[in-house]
């Protein structure tokens, strides 16, 4: 009687090796732990009929096997088609909104390219504190304007 390794059983059943290990753990497959060339490995003596890979008839195409509307009622098909149309309309709106955002970003870039970059608030604040506490007296401003002796030197 032939025995199968886990990869061989997975290929026969059309599932992953991880699924075969789950089947063994759940008791769906009987396996014996034997010494193999690289250590202990599971050997599966027989594959149950209920786990065998389902064969598809040759007259079906891949599209027939993956038909999302197979077996659905006409009302369900109508609802699905309506939802697909709404999805396409929303995708078109999203594309238009994305294009509008790109246009506005390019306009904003054109407007702001000629301006010098603003000094961050914390640098302005720090410069004011530094000037205030550096010990250098700041020229006092009066509400009446500059003193008369300075007015004469300006002209």
From TrEMBL:
<dbReference type="Pfam" id="PF12728">
    <property type="entry name" value="HTH_17"/>
</dbReference>
<feature type="coiled-coil region">
    <location>
        <begin position="80"/>
        <end position="114"/>
    </location>
</feature>
<feature type="domain" description="Helix-turn-helix">
    <location>
        <begin position="4"/>
        <end position="46"/>
    </location>
</feature>
<dbReference type="InterPro" id="IPR009061">
    <property type="entry name" value="DNA-bd_dom_put_sf"/>
</dbReference>
<protein>
    <submittedName>
        <fullName>Helix-turn-helix domain</fullName>
    </submittedName>
</protein>
<dbReference type="InterPro" id="IPR041657">
    <property type="entry name" value="HTH_17"/>
</dbReference>
<keyword id="KW-0175">Coiled coil</keyword>
<feature type="region of interest" description="Disordered">
    <location>
        <begin position="136"/>
        <end position="155"/>
    </location>
</feature>
């Amino acid at each position: 009687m032939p025995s199968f390794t886990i990869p061989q059983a997975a290929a026969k059943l059309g599932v992953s090796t991880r699924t075969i290990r789950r089947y063994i753990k759940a008791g769906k497959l009987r396996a014996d732990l034997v010494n193999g060339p690289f250590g202990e490995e599971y050997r599966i003596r027989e594959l149950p009929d209920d786990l065998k890979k389902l064969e598809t008839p040759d007259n079906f195409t891949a599209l027939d096997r993956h038909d999302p509307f197979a077996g659905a009622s006409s009302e369900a098909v109508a609802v699905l088609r309506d939802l697909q149309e709404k999805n396409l309309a929303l995708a078109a709106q999203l594309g238009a909104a994305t294009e509008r955002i790109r246009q506005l970003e390019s306009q904003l870039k054109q407007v702001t390219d000629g301006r010098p970059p603003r000094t961050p608030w914390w640098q302005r604040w720090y410069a004011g504190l530094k000037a205030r506490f550096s010990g250098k007296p700041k020229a006092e401003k009066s509400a009446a304007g500059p003193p008369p002796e300075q007015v004469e030197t300006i002209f």
